[in-house]
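Reviewers asked in the last cycle whether our approach scales beyond single polypeptides. To address this, we selected a multi-component target totalling 648 residues and predicted its structure end to end. The input consisted of the following lines:
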Amino acid sequence: MMLPRRALAALAATLPLRPARSDMAGPARIVSVGGAVTETVFALGAGARVVATDSTSLFPAAARALPKVGYFRALAPEGLLSLGADLILLSSDAGPPQAIEVLRAAGAPLHVVPEAQDGPGIARRVRDVAAALGLDGAPLAGAVLDDWRALDAPVAALPPVRAIFVLSAARGAPLVAGGRTHADAMLRTAGAVNVVRGFDGYRPLSAEAAAALAPEAAVMMAHVIEEAGGPDALLRLPAFAVTPLARSRRVVGMDGSYLLGFGPRAAHARRDLARLLHPGATLPDLPARAWT
Amino acid sequence: MSASLAAPLPRERRALALLPLGLLVLAGAMLAGVLLGPARISAAGLFATLADALGLAPLPAEHARDAAVLGVVRAPRVLMAALIGAGLGAAGAAMQGLFRNPLADPGLIGVSAGAALAAVAAIVLGGSLFGAAAGLVGLWLLPLAAFAGGLLATLLMARLGTVGGVASVATLLLAGVAVNALAGALTGVLVFMADDRQVRDITFWTLGSLAGARWAQLPVVLALVGVPLLLLCALARPLNALLLGEAEAFHLGVRVEAVKRLAVVLAAVAVAAGVAFTGLIGFVGLVVPHLVRLGFGADHRLVLPGAALLGGALLVLADLAARSLAAPAELPVGVVTALLGAPFFLWLLRRRGAGA
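The resulting structure, written as structure tokens, was:
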């Protein structure tokens, strides 16, 4: 049945105006590059609009199942363009710069998301991503910041633990985190001091140096502990056998993207790490959040 | 006059066909490289882009993406691949001729190791030297460093390999081995200093990629790869004479030392300029000259241009595969060329073993 156009227009005018639903506005096909960026997009409720992610986007499970554009430092200009996205969110570390330059020249809808290593930074990033998606980021940003700040005073009251972060220990000297790493930032915000000083990034640690640093606790990604044969095997390594670790036996394992991602789950990761590093300490329970 | 002299021998007849055939293969590869890839281009988009490029009709907005993929991403990439592959092929052919060794490749003269050392230095130290601007500087800093590093390593090798004004092939080879070892060790020191992310960047650089190809780089590549390429082809006759031995070449009137030095420098410039923009791309310089020799004989007048044309075609096709096979991600192109090249290399070794 065909209605005259005029009749259709009249009919439309009688309908109540649809409320401007914020999640219907903005880009419809999103490529998200970077683990924390992807977590933020999904926490904002826009996960269904994501068509592809990079190989470091491991959470939530739905993000892991999407097509992968490769490692975020080795992006493919044509591959990204082939997805027909109307928004490509890039972590500030995405690269290589030459490929980003090609994408820019080709008029790709790029948006570079700022880096974050603390609560206020994460809140800023949430608002930035939300604005790019045409969403209101204030609720999520506020919740993350509230959770983060709720831990500030209790963590500051804890006696700092001398800790190291071990990236890998399966073969050779263990690779530990120095300054300017996410691991270093996470240790400091969870009531620990990173005993490794004097270099940035990850370096192998000799047994002598480990003995001098005298860490009481070692933080690792859970799968790394497994690959190394469990905590007992780890503590037998020369670099750890000579440290207070051998007596305290405090080897803490957490999921890598949860611990180091500095995404919307970071406040919860901070609380979990602080609890593991300070057994028996009282830390506030954070509200259960949909995105954790 | 006997019939056998009047009618060209089969190999000679094939030789006549080499250049047109090579041009045809290269043109076909380049056409495929521009038209194919993970981003589907509609026929309408292609014609709209062509019409726009020829100034016939303005580009309709709905074909803007097709035009960007064709004009901004693929066209410079295919041209770069063709030029750089041609440079690698011709440089490899010249080095195999010069060293009279079928296993020679441009890596032998230290150019790849030197470029890698300098590129790794740019990756690891660029950030601390240039701070926040390193990202921007990086667009040209890394290529510039890699080019200079490759060239310096080759000059060092040529200097060390020359004793009393004579660069004997054996001394040059040993000097090349030493320069490679030294550059490798210094690269190791830098890798030790690098952080986790830089190590990843280094890994990807050593596997090669044309993902960063842009129009702005093409004039540079055209000058620094194209010119040495043509000059190398002009060295075909002296290189042919050298195949007989250095003393024989000298008696044929070839200025042996000058030719050797020139060939090494030209090969180094062509390879260093390519490597500077793409990272290390293996096996093109090794395999392609052999393919040409197997089909058309060892005459450098054929091997040099043939290796250039085929090298260009191979790298264009390898890059097409690199772009397409893992889409929307991308394989490193050095991996693709090595996957094609390594089995061929092994077959070559076994064939040589059986013949000896």
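Chain A has 15 helices and ten strands. We regard this as preliminary and will revisit it once experimental data from Aim 1 are available.
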